[in-house]
Amino acid sequence: MKKSTSTNRILPVTSTKSGTTQLVADHVYGYTNQIVNAYFIQTSADLNEWVLVDAGMPASGVKLLHVAEQLFGRDHHLKAILLTHGHFDHVGGIVSILERFPVPVYAHSLEIPFLTGEKDYPEPDSSVEGGALAKVSSVYPVEAIDISEHLHPLPEGGAIPFLPEWEWMHTPGHSPGHVSYYRKHDKLLLAGDAFVTVKQDSLYRVLTQVKSVEGPPVYLTTDWEAAAKSVKKLAALYPQIAATGHGQRMAGEALTNGLIELADQFQERAVPSHGRYVDE
After folding, report:
1. Contact 278, 271 (CB under 8 A)
2. C-beta separation of 136 from 111 below 8 A
3. What are the extents of the domains in the chain?
4. What is the DSSP string of 30-50?
5. In which order are the strands placed within the sheet that holds 250-251?
6. Which pLDDT tens digit goes with each residue over 23-65?
7. CATH classification code of 5-153+163-279
8. Beta partners for 183?
Protein backbone atom coordinates (compact mmCIF):
# COMPACT_ATOMS: atom_id res chain seq x y z
CA MET A 1 0.00 0.00 0.00
CA LYS A 2 1.22 3.46 -0.86
CA LYS A 3 1.29 6.07 1.88
CA SER A 4 1.12 9.66 0.69
CA THR A 5 0.58 13.19 1.89
CA SER A 6 -3.13 12.39 1.82
CA THR A 7 -2.64 9.88 4.63
CA ASN A 8 0.23 11.32 6.67
CA ARG A 9 0.16 15.14 6.45
CA ILE A 10 -1.34 16.28 9.75
CA LEU A 11 -3.32 19.49 9.34
CA PRO A 12 -3.95 21.88 12.28
CA VAL A 13 -7.70 22.31 11.76
CA THR A 14 -10.41 21.31 14.19
CA SER A 15 -13.91 21.98 15.52
CA THR A 16 -15.68 22.00 18.87
CA LYS A 17 -17.14 18.56 18.05
CA SER A 18 -13.80 16.91 17.30
CA GLY A 19 -13.37 13.67 19.23
CA THR A 20 -17.08 13.19 19.87
CA THR A 21 -19.24 10.22 18.95
CA GLN A 22 -23.01 10.33 18.42
CA LEU A 23 -25.78 7.88 17.63
CA VAL A 24 -27.03 8.80 14.16
CA ALA A 25 -29.79 6.16 13.91
CA ASP A 26 -30.28 2.50 14.82
CA HIS A 27 -26.90 0.72 14.57
CA VAL A 28 -25.21 3.77 13.00
CA TYR A 29 -22.73 5.98 14.81
CA GLY A 30 -20.85 9.08 13.71
CA TYR A 31 -17.43 10.22 14.90
CA THR A 32 -16.07 13.71 14.25
CA ASN A 33 -12.35 13.62 13.48
CA GLN A 34 -11.13 17.25 13.49
CA ILE A 35 -13.41 18.69 10.77
CA VAL A 36 -14.69 15.56 9.06
CA ASN A 37 -16.99 12.68 9.99
CA ALA A 38 -16.59 8.92 9.73
CA TYR A 39 -19.48 6.52 10.24
CA PHE A 40 -19.65 3.13 11.93
CA ILE A 41 -22.46 0.77 10.89
CA GLN A 42 -23.12 -2.27 13.06
CA THR A 43 -24.08 -5.11 10.75
CA SER A 44 -26.30 -6.83 13.33
CA ALA A 45 -27.60 -5.84 16.75
CA ASP A 46 -26.14 -8.90 18.48
CA LEU A 47 -22.76 -8.96 16.74
CA ASN A 48 -19.53 -7.03 17.06
CA GLU A 49 -19.16 -6.83 13.29
CA TRP A 50 -19.23 -3.44 11.59
CA VAL A 51 -18.60 -1.50 8.40
CA LEU A 52 -16.73 1.82 8.23
CA VAL A 53 -17.91 4.62 5.95
CA ASP A 54 -14.96 6.90 5.14
CA ALA A 55 -11.69 6.95 7.03
CA GLY A 56 -11.09 10.40 8.46
CA MET A 57 -8.25 12.89 8.36
CA PRO A 58 -4.60 11.95 7.73
CA ALA A 59 -3.02 9.85 10.49
CA SER A 60 -6.40 9.11 12.11
CA GLY A 61 -6.51 5.33 11.75
CA VAL A 62 -5.60 4.54 15.37
CA LYS A 63 -8.25 7.00 16.60
CA LEU A 64 -10.94 5.42 14.45
CA LEU A 65 -10.12 1.92 15.63
CA HIS A 66 -10.19 3.12 19.23
CA VAL A 67 -13.71 4.44 18.64
CA ALA A 68 -14.70 1.07 17.17
CA GLU A 69 -13.40 -0.65 20.30
CA GLN A 70 -15.48 1.67 22.48
CA LEU A 71 -18.59 1.03 20.38
CA PHE A 72 -18.33 -2.69 19.64
CA GLY A 73 -15.90 -4.12 22.18
CA ARG A 74 -12.26 -5.13 22.15
CA ASP A 75 -12.99 -8.14 19.94
CA HIS A 76 -14.75 -6.04 17.27
CA HIS A 77 -14.47 -7.22 13.69
CA LEU A 78 -14.32 -4.82 10.79
CA LYS A 79 -15.95 -6.35 7.69
CA ALA A 80 -15.40 -3.69 5.01
CA ILE A 81 -14.74 -0.02 4.31
CA LEU A 82 -17.08 1.99 2.11
CA LEU A 83 -15.86 5.26 0.64
CA THR A 84 -18.06 8.14 -0.45
CA HIS A 85 -14.99 9.43 -2.31
CA GLY A 86 -11.23 9.54 -1.94
CA HIS A 87 -10.31 13.08 -0.87
CA PHE A 88 -7.62 13.29 1.81
CA ASP A 89 -10.08 13.91 4.65
CA HIS A 90 -12.07 10.78 3.80
CA VAL A 91 -9.16 8.33 3.37
CA GLY A 92 -6.62 9.77 5.81
CA GLY A 93 -6.63 6.82 8.21
CA ILE A 94 -7.28 4.05 5.73
CA VAL A 95 -3.76 2.70 5.25
CA SER A 96 -3.12 2.12 8.95
CA ILE A 97 -6.57 0.57 9.35
CA LEU A 98 -5.94 -1.83 6.47
CA GLU A 99 -2.59 -2.81 7.95
CA ARG A 100 -4.48 -4.19 10.95
CA PHE A 101 -7.70 -5.24 9.22
CA PRO A 102 -7.02 -6.17 5.57
CA VAL A 103 -10.67 -5.92 4.55
CA PRO A 104 -12.20 -5.07 1.17
CA VAL A 105 -12.64 -1.39 0.33
CA TYR A 106 -15.52 -0.40 -1.94
CA ALA A 107 -15.74 2.75 -4.06
CA HIS A 108 -17.33 3.86 -7.33
CA SER A 109 -15.42 2.81 -10.44
CA LEU A 110 -14.80 6.46 -11.40
CA GLU A 111 -13.03 7.03 -8.09
CA ILE A 112 -10.70 4.07 -8.45
CA PRO A 113 -7.86 5.91 -10.34
CA PHE A 114 -7.39 8.16 -7.29
CA LEU A 115 -7.18 5.11 -5.01
CA THR A 116 -4.69 3.06 -7.03
CA GLY A 117 -1.96 5.68 -7.39
CA GLU A 118 -2.87 6.25 -11.03
CA LYS A 119 -4.12 9.82 -10.82
CA ASP A 120 -3.99 12.72 -8.34
CA TYR A 121 -7.05 14.85 -7.65
CA PRO A 122 -7.22 18.36 -9.14
CA GLU A 123 -5.58 21.02 -6.98
CA PRO A 124 -7.83 22.81 -4.46
CA ASP A 125 -9.01 26.21 -5.64
CA SER A 126 -7.91 28.80 -3.09
CA SER A 127 -9.09 31.57 -5.43
CA VAL A 128 -12.72 30.50 -5.14
CA GLU A 129 -15.30 32.74 -3.47
CA GLY A 130 -15.49 31.68 0.16
CA GLY A 131 -14.24 32.06 3.70
CA ALA A 132 -10.96 31.42 5.46
CA LEU A 133 -10.86 27.65 4.99
CA ALA A 134 -11.25 28.12 1.24
CA LYS A 135 -8.38 30.60 1.18
CA VAL A 136 -5.95 28.20 2.86
CA SER A 137 -7.07 25.16 0.85
CA SER A 138 -3.87 25.16 -1.21
CA VAL A 139 -2.24 23.23 1.68
CA TYR A 140 -4.77 20.37 1.45
CA PRO A 141 -3.15 17.27 -0.09
CA VAL A 142 -4.52 15.83 -3.33
CA GLU A 143 -1.98 13.06 -3.87
CA ALA A 144 -3.43 9.69 -4.84
CA ILE A 145 -3.12 6.76 -2.49
CA ASP A 146 -2.61 3.16 -3.56
CA ILE A 147 -4.83 0.61 -1.84
CA SER A 148 -5.34 -1.41 -5.02
CA GLU A 149 -4.78 -4.78 -3.30
CA HIS A 150 -7.91 -4.15 -1.20
CA LEU A 151 -10.00 -2.13 -3.64
CA HIS A 152 -13.25 -3.23 -5.32
CA PRO A 153 -15.81 -1.33 -7.37
CA LEU A 154 -19.23 -1.04 -5.78
CA PRO A 155 -21.58 -3.66 -7.29
CA GLU A 156 -23.79 -2.57 -10.16
CA GLY A 157 -27.42 -1.90 -9.28
CA GLY A 158 -26.90 -0.25 -5.90
CA ALA A 159 -26.36 -3.28 -3.63
CA ILE A 160 -23.80 -2.92 -0.83
CA PRO A 161 -21.83 -5.90 0.50
CA PHE A 162 -22.58 -6.76 4.16
CA LEU A 163 -25.42 -4.20 4.30
CA PRO A 164 -28.54 -5.69 2.65
CA GLU A 165 -30.84 -2.90 3.90
CA TRP A 166 -28.73 -0.21 2.24
CA GLU A 167 -28.19 1.00 -1.31
CA TRP A 168 -25.64 3.30 -2.92
CA MET A 169 -26.25 5.97 -5.52
CA HIS A 170 -23.86 7.89 -7.73
CA THR A 171 -23.82 11.57 -6.68
CA PRO A 172 -20.92 13.15 -8.61
CA GLY A 173 -19.84 16.77 -8.73
CA HIS A 174 -17.63 17.09 -5.69
CA SER A 175 -15.61 14.27 -7.23
CA PRO A 176 -16.23 12.11 -10.32
CA GLY A 177 -17.10 8.93 -8.42
CA HIS A 178 -18.72 10.40 -5.35
CA VAL A 179 -21.49 8.21 -3.92
CA SER A 180 -24.07 8.47 -1.16
CA TYR A 181 -25.49 5.64 0.96
CA TYR A 182 -29.20 5.30 1.77
CA ARG A 183 -31.25 3.10 4.10
CA LYS A 184 -34.83 3.14 2.90
CA HIS A 185 -36.75 1.89 5.93
CA ASP A 186 -35.89 4.94 8.06
CA LYS A 187 -34.86 7.26 5.19
CA LEU A 188 -31.34 7.61 6.54
CA LEU A 189 -28.86 9.22 4.16
CA LEU A 190 -25.08 9.20 4.48
CA ALA A 191 -24.39 11.90 1.91
CA GLY A 192 -20.62 12.34 2.08
CA ASP A 193 -19.83 15.74 0.56
CA ALA A 194 -22.65 15.79 -2.00
CA PHE A 195 -24.09 18.32 0.44
CA VAL A 196 -22.99 19.13 3.97
CA THR A 197 -24.61 20.45 7.14
CA VAL A 198 -22.14 23.23 7.88
CA LYS A 199 -20.77 26.02 5.72
CA GLN A 200 -17.45 24.30 5.21
CA ASP A 201 -15.43 27.24 3.88
CA SER A 202 -16.25 29.39 6.94
CA LEU A 203 -13.71 29.01 9.76
CA TYR A 204 -16.17 30.26 12.38
CA ARG A 205 -18.99 27.91 11.32
CA VAL A 206 -16.66 24.93 11.12
CA LEU A 207 -15.20 25.68 14.55
CA THR A 208 -18.65 26.06 16.13
CA GLN A 209 -20.47 23.53 13.91
CA VAL A 210 -23.47 25.78 13.23
CA LYS A 211 -26.03 23.60 11.42
CA SER A 212 -27.32 24.50 7.97
CA VAL A 213 -27.88 22.64 4.72
CA GLU A 214 -25.13 23.71 2.33
CA GLY A 215 -23.68 22.70 -1.02
CA PRO A 216 -20.48 20.69 -1.31
CA PRO A 217 -17.18 22.24 -0.13
CA VAL A 218 -16.36 24.87 -2.71
CA TYR A 219 -12.57 24.52 -2.85
CA LEU A 220 -12.57 20.89 -4.03
CA THR A 221 -15.78 20.70 -6.09
CA THR A 222 -14.86 20.53 -9.76
CA ASP A 223 -18.18 19.94 -11.58
CA TRP A 224 -20.94 22.26 -10.39
CA GLU A 225 -23.49 21.11 -12.96
CA ALA A 226 -23.17 17.51 -11.79
CA ALA A 227 -23.21 18.65 -8.15
CA ALA A 228 -26.56 20.40 -8.71
CA LYS A 229 -28.08 17.27 -10.24
CA SER A 230 -26.82 15.18 -7.33
CA VAL A 231 -28.45 17.46 -4.77
CA LYS A 232 -31.75 17.28 -6.68
CA LYS A 233 -31.51 13.47 -6.69
CA LEU A 234 -30.98 13.37 -2.94
CA ALA A 235 -33.68 15.95 -2.20
CA ALA A 236 -36.16 13.78 -4.12
CA LEU A 237 -35.63 11.03 -1.52
CA TYR A 238 -37.06 13.29 1.22
CA PRO A 239 -34.57 11.89 3.74
CA GLN A 240 -35.62 12.03 7.39
CA ILE A 241 -32.07 11.78 8.78
CA ALA A 242 -28.87 12.92 7.11
CA ALA A 243 -25.29 12.50 8.22
CA THR A 244 -22.76 14.19 5.99
CA GLY A 245 -19.01 14.39 5.60
CA HIS A 246 -18.88 17.72 7.38
CA GLY A 247 -21.28 19.12 9.98
CA GLN A 248 -23.63 17.45 12.40
CA ARG A 249 -26.59 15.10 12.05
CA MET A 250 -29.80 16.75 10.85
CA ALA A 251 -33.32 15.33 10.86
CA GLY A 252 -36.97 16.13 10.23
CA GLU A 253 -38.36 19.23 8.56
CA ALA A 254 -35.19 21.27 9.02
CA LEU A 255 -33.40 18.72 6.86
CA THR A 256 -36.05 18.02 4.22
CA ASN A 257 -37.00 21.68 3.77
CA GLY A 258 -33.39 22.80 3.78
CA LEU A 259 -32.43 20.22 1.17
CA ILE A 260 -35.36 21.11 -1.08
CA GLU A 261 -34.46 24.81 -0.83
CA LEU A 262 -30.84 24.02 -1.65
CA ALA A 263 -31.88 21.99 -4.69
CA ASP A 264 -34.24 24.72 -5.91
CA GLN A 265 -31.74 27.53 -5.33
CA PHE A 266 -28.51 25.68 -5.97
CA GLN A 267 -27.01 28.28 -8.30
CA GLU A 268 -27.58 31.10 -5.82
CA ARG A 269 -26.94 29.15 -2.61
CA ALA A 270 -24.08 26.81 -3.50
CA VAL A 271 -22.21 27.84 -6.64
CA PRO A 272 -19.48 30.44 -5.98
CA SER A 273 -19.54 33.66 -7.97
CA HIS A 274 -16.02 32.97 -9.18
CA GLY A 275 -13.33 30.31 -9.03
CA ARG A 276 -11.20 28.12 -11.24
CA TYR A 277 -13.75 25.32 -11.56
CA VAL A 278 -16.70 27.70 -11.79
CA ASP A 279 -15.12 29.54 -14.70
CA GLU A 280 -14.12 26.33 -16.43
Report:
1. yes
2. no
3. 5-153+163-279
4. EEEETTEEEEEEESSTT--EE
5. 166-170, 179-183, 188-192, 241-244, 250-251
6. 999 999 999 999 999 999 999 877 899 999 999 999 999 999 9
7. 3.60.15.10
8. 166, 188
